[in-house]
Amino acid sequence: MIMRIAFLCNAKYVLSLKKIMNQYHNIETFYFCSSDKEQKIKEDEYKIKIDKNYEYEIFKLLEIDLVLMYSWKYLIPENVLNRIPVYNFHPSLLPAYRGPLPLTFQILNGEKTGGVTLHKVDKYYDNGAIYTQMKYNISSNDTSVILEIKVFQCIKRIMDMFVKDLINSNILLTNQDISKVTCYSYADLNKYIIDNTYSLNKFLQISRYINKVKLKIKVGNDIYFLKNYKIDRDNICNYEYCLTNKKIYVSIIPYKDVGVKTINKVASIPIVP
User: Fold this and answer.
1) What is the spatial distance between Cα 173 and Cα 86, in angstroms, rounded to a whole number?
2) Are residues 100 and 182 in the same domain?
3) Of 160, 188, 216, which marks where a domain is finished?
4) 130 near 117, Cβ under 8 Å?
5) How confident is the model at residue 188 (pLDDT cuts 50, 70, 90)?
6) Residue 260 has what pLDDT?
């Protein structure tokens, strides 16, 4: 018997997820990516517009048996949860690092171990009972690409177990330990400021990984955005900063939220980990 699965995901992960799902010959998978308009783009891919009234009626039309999610930012309506089992791959060891940026905050917090959790979805974000978890090591040289490879390696191993247990009707779940919950949001990024406690390795890891977020640095008593950096001085990166074990050269821009003025002279200022 063929099982029909809907996979809800960020569009950039479809190819990686297909490589995993295509090996299961007893599963037919349909991929759903959020978009500005509803549009079928391939035989098994759909772009759908999500709003608060969207009820996922297409699941009925496709006779979906089970829903999987990865990097899907929308809550699933309770009426859908009541009629179809829904599971989410979350790139942390829940209940730690709930929220939309688990990988980012694990790097910011200097974690040495990461992981992936497959959990049942309920009406709250990242709250449902856990099927299983897998760990991986985080190295100081890991970039966002390397971490995503590690995440998908975990997803592949978890899927092998999950499919076997689905076939044997042997899905066992464990409730999350609420006393161990940690949760981070986009607003929490404002709490992280590069200062003179940073080593070069930590600075490079954060700057390589968090390439879509403006990093903030502390210059004296003021806060600036880090625009660019170089190991050697050039015409753009000409402000000298001292890490705990290395000087770097940076260009900075005012952090307007706190009314900081632009630095207009070269300064030797301690910063960062």
Assistant:
1) 13
2) yes
3) 188
4) yes
5) confident
6) 39
